[in-house]
Amino acid sequence: MFYIIGGVATLLFILVAILFKEKPKHPPSRAQSLSYALASPDASYLSSIVRLFKNLNFVLLVITYGLNTGAFYALSTLLNRMVILHYPGEEVNAGRIGLTIVISGMLGAVISGIWLDRSKAYKNLCHPNCLIQ
Fold it and tell me: How many other CB atoms sit within 10 Å of the CB of residue 112?
């Protein structure tokens, strides 16, 4: 089964690499046409990455996202062992705890998005030098 999936994925990769062009002959909109005209030819991928990591807000976002994700992965990986150590035979409840963590995270993200959208408080959450201003 893995060979079949690997073969299909490889075939699709080869087709994309051969058939897809970098950009269409004609821009799909006026905005995209203007974007092509204003794009600097000397902009490289490496310079974009360097510019990103010089942005304090981006670095703080990467650090906080990494800490949050790392803590979640560590907790979810060790959750079963932690629960079974203190409550033997409660494997089902360990699964329920994990499900509760995931669902509460999803609901928190949705509620936060709705609240930010209604309150228009995006700028209040930004550093004074934020790019979103």
Answer: 11
